[in-house]
Structure formats: structure tokens, C-alpha cells
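Structural prep section.
Before we set up the soaks we want a predicted structure of the protein with 6-O-phosphono-beta-D-glucopyranose in place, mainly to decide which crystallisation condition to try first. Input record follows.
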Amino acid sequence: MKTISTCIFDLDGVIVDTAKYHYLAWKRLAYELGFEFLEEHNERLKGVSRMTSLDIMLEVGGLTFSQSEKEVMAARKNEWYLEYIYKMTPEEILPGVVDFLVMLRSKGIKISLGSASKNAMLILERVQLQHYFDAVIDGNKALKAKPDPQVFLLAAEELGQNPTSCVVFEDAAAGIEAAKAAGMKCIGIGSPNVLGKADKVVPGFVNATIDLIKF
Ligand code: BG6
Ligand code: MG
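Run finished without errors. Recording the C-alpha cells verbatim:
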């Protein structure tokens, strides 16, 4: 049996459901640009960086802009997004997450965040989870977006762990690909239809035990 030393968690969609706030902020930008951005389009933005999200959004609207115009738009979207984030409370942590983190700590397993978000630290602070994490790798530290494995490899490196003893928790197909490219085990959080390439898929952390990370 494979011994896991480290659990690396994606943030958006695994620990908290911030996808709805990303969606509301992108929708507002789309509205200002004169097109409608639907929830089904939002699925394509999961796990990818802010600028890639903007490119996908503009593709949906059939619009093109210069790099500097896009940077202004991405910054505005982020301001709107942050209005929601500042209002977040620990009640928004997804069910079962805290118990699972407590259990991992009690067993001496290291815990890291591996997120594309540049707002990750702020979100962890808002929901008061930052003290559970031995390392936080976010979109400020990892410059290559998932499916590139950089974010997860940096997490393993910061904790002095071999990638093969790490497991990644992910809700996005791009994140599963990144974990596999890093040579790590991967557990999909969500539906097997989207996350079929993961080693295991579970709907969430409710009643999860140490058996979840036994392979
Ligand atoms: C990921 C989200 O975690 O972070 C993406 O799944 C988002 O939807 C990306 O675009 C970047 O987030 P932020 O907070 O830096 O704009
Ligand atoms: Mg995610």
C-alpha cells in the first residue's frame, strides 16, 4: 500500500464554493460588454487562471481586446469578486472539510494548498482555515497555470516531500491533469463524469476517513 505523507488541496470548489462568486463577477463584466454569460459557460473557467478565464469569457462573447485593455477588465472583475470574498465567513467552508483537516493533522500528515487563485490567502483568512496549512502555494507563487504541474510540485518541494507520496484533491479536470503530470495521486471532488481521470472520485468530504487516502 502507498504511504501518503502530504495532502494538497485545491481551494475553489474543494474547500469553499467560490465558483459562484467568480461567475457573478464575470457575468457583470459580460453584461457591461453587451453579452450574456451563462452558468454553463462558467464550467470552462474552473481551475484556470484569471487571464485565461477572461480569454474564455471573451471568446464566448466573440470579442477581442488588446493586452492592456484585458488587464484593466481583469482587475475590475477582481474588484467585484473581492466584494463577495470580503463578506465570506467560516460557514461557507464545504461540509466535512474541517473534520477531515483535523483528522489529517492528528495523523501527522502534512497539508498544503495548491490553488491557481491570487486571492487564496485572503479566502483562507476569511474562512479562518489558514492555520491548518503547512504550505500555501497560490497564483502568486505558481506562475504556470494548471494543467501545468508547477503549483503541486512547488507544494511538495516547500514541504520537502517526494511527489509520489502526495495526494491532490481537485474539482477541475485541468487540476487532475496537473496532479497526474506531477506524478501524484489525485482524488476528484465532484462528479465522475468530469473527473474520470482521477484515481478516486468522491462527492465531498462528509464522513471521509483516512481510508480515502489509502491506495
Ligand atoms: C481557480 C478558479 O481556483 O482560480 C478559477 O477555479 C479562477 O475559476 C482562478 O479563475 C484564479 O482566481 P483569482 O482569484 O486569482 O482570480
Ligand atoms: Mg477548483
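Observations: The first strand starts at residue 6 and ends at 9.
Flagged for discussion at group meeting.
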